[in-house]
Design a protein that fits this description.
The complex is a heterodimer.
Chain A: H1 2-32, E1 36-40, H2 44-53, H3 64-70, E2 75-85, E3 98-102, H4 111-118, E4 126-129, E5 140-143, E6 146-153, E7 164-168, H5 169-179, E8 196-201, H6 207-217, E9 221-225, H7 226-269, H8 271-279, H9 284-316, H10 318-325, H11 334-364, H12 368-376
Parallel strand pairs in A: 3-7, 4-6
Antiparallel strand pairs in A: 1-8, 1-9, 2-3, 2-8, 4-7, 5-6
Chain B: H1 5-24, E1 35-36, E2 42-43, H2 46-68, H3 74-98, H4 108-133
Antiparallel strand pairs in B: 1-2
Chain lengths: 377, 135
């Protein structure tokens, strides 16, 4: 039972990790609404970290980049964003988070959400917070000595957005200008500076083509694409998922013959009982079925325990595991999860049945007198 | 002399509840993280107080489990099981409701200590209920 618990638990853990990362990626990227992100040269890795895990970061380039990007062939829409990392454990700031300043006039990422959920644009000194930011709607947050009011909360994505705070770019510039005057840590941000340009590509154009054009025609820039994010996530998950797959394979390879040996020994110990059952009229098929179904049931129960245990551990330590692996995570949809769990259980039961085939067959072939006599020896 | 399995498990759980916030999944102050006032004074954060409270809960649970290991009568066993159930509930309540943890969702106390204590508290409740209901 323990072997099947480990096999099922490892398989389901791998699914949860890989599936959760993929689900978070799908939800997060669709929330972002952008096909590409243009950042200062050398800041691609930092910006990927901001998107994936929300690790706060601050970098800027000149806003003239925005008009240059808007002029590139294949760009349907472009909007600038300002990234500011607030300070940790400082009197000026409520929380160390990623502030993302957006321009309501050109934005196409957060504005649709505002229209649908809030029904109005964001007012002066209002913010939208990611799902994991603590604070009720209407409560205030302070960043660089400037007070903001929480106007709304985004749905969970499992990505960096969950620990980010969206503010109007205009408020970000005002906050920076006033930061030294209010006695907070001074923030060096010139009005007009931006950190990234989010790009929505024309449907008829390949995003990678537009990315190449931007990098070729606008010096000092790098383009972050969804493929680059996928590659980064895959490499970060690779070692963890490989370890889980190897563990599953190793335990499965060892457990099937081991359980077969143990089942054979157990059937041997119950030879007398089997002989008595046969003597009382039990058919060979009946004997086969009870030993076989016992093996399947034990494997299924072990699989259930393993799946339950891995789900509890993953659910409890989700943030610790994903922070250690530096990957985004959002629980996969329930129907997909249930079907995978069912498949894993079926595999565990099948493995249990396979390992019990030989002892079930040999037990069913025993003659009653011989079985009783050998059982008494 | 046969010792109670339930008592042994509760002693182990009590020890884990004591050790978790300080050694296994340490709270922020173990890493040198404190809240800082405007005058620069360092203050222990809520997770630090939770860790101190769990010292008491875990110690009492271990004591309850140790006594349970040697108890013979059903009534005493059930009474100790009831006390252990309440201690398990406290182990969960301190980090989630009574004292709480840090507001920053990325702090180690939120990602590691809190779920570990909740898990240990739930296991304590489960084992204690089995001790109570066992014939």
């Amino acid at each position: 039972m323990v072997c099947f618990a480990v096999v099922a638990g490892s398989l389901v853990s791998t699914y949860f990790l890989v599936g959760g990362t993929r689900n978070s990626f799908d939800v997060g990227l669709s929330r972002m609404g952008a096909d590409l992100m243009v950042v200062p040269e050398g800041e691609a890795s930092q910006s990927e970290t901001v998107i994936l895990t929300g690790q706060p970061s601050t970098f800027f380039f000149n806003s003239s980049i925005l008009s240059s990007v808007q002029g590139i062939q294949g760009v349907e829409a472009a909007s600038g964003q300002v990234y500011i990392a607030t300070l940790k454990d400082a009197p000026c700031c409520s929380l160390p988070v990623q502030l993302i300043g957006f321009d309501p006039a050109t934005d196409f990422t957060i504005s649709p959400w505002l229209n649908n959920e809030l029904g109005r644009p964001l007012n002066h000194d209002e913010v939208i917070v990611g799902n994991r930011i603590i604070g009720d709607i209407g409560s205030s947050l302070k960043f660089y000595g400037h007070n903001f009011t929480i106007a709304g909360r985004l749905e969970p994505t499992g990505m960096g957005i969950d620990v980010s705070v969206f503010i109007r770019a205009d408020d970000a510039y005002t906050m920076a200008e006033q930061s030294a005057a209010v006695g907070a840590a001074p923030l060096s941000l010139q009005r007009g500076q931006i950190s990234a340009v989010l790009v929505r590509v024309d449907k008829s154009t390949d995003p990678s083509t537009v990315a190449s054009r931007i990098q070729a025609q606008i010096p000092g820039t790098q383009v972050v694409t969804s493929n680059a994010l996928i590659a980064r996530i895959t490499s970060q998950l690779a070692s963890a998922s490989q370890l889980l797959y190897v563990t599953t394979a190793a335990v499965a390879v060892v457990s099937v013959p081991l359980v077969a040996v143990i089942s054979t020994m157990a059937a041997g110990e119950r030879r007398r009982e089997i002989g008595l059952l046969r003597a009382m009229g039990a058919t060979r098929g009946f004997i086969f079925r009870i030993i076989f179904s016992e093996g399947v049931l034990l494997a299924a129960v072990g699989g259930l325990i393993g799946i339950g245990g891995s789900a509890v551990i993953l659910y409890s330590f989700e943030r610790l595991i994903t922070a250690s692996l530096a990957v985004p995570f959002l629980w996969p949809p329930l129907p997909e999860t249930l079907s995978y769990v069912g498949l894993t259980l079926a595999l565990a039961a099948a493995a249990g049945g396979l390992s019990c085939l030989y002892p079930a067959y040999t037990s069913s072939r025993l003659e009653p007198y011989e079985a009783i006599r050998r059982g008494e020896i | 002399m046969k010792l109670s399995l339930g008592g042994t498990i509760l002693v182990a759980l009590g020890a884990l509840i004591v050790l978790t916030p300080w050694y296994i999944f340490p709270v922020c102050e173990v890493f040198g993280d404190y809240a800082q006032t405007a005058t620069g004074k360092l203050l222990v954060m809520p997770c630090g107080y939770t860790a101190r409270a769990e010292l008491g809960v875990g110690s009492l649970l271990a004591l309850s489990g140790a006594v349970l290991m040697f108890v013979k009568t059903t009534e005493t066993r059930r009474a100790l099981g009831g006390v252990s159930t309440a201690l398990g509930a406290l182990a969960i309540a301190f980090p989630t409701a009574i004292i709480g943890m840090c507001a920053n969702p990325t702090h180690p106390c939120v990602t590691g200590t809190e779920p570990a204590l909740i898990l240990l508290g739930a296991l304590t409740i489960l084992v204690s209920l089995i001790v109570i209901l066992r014939r």
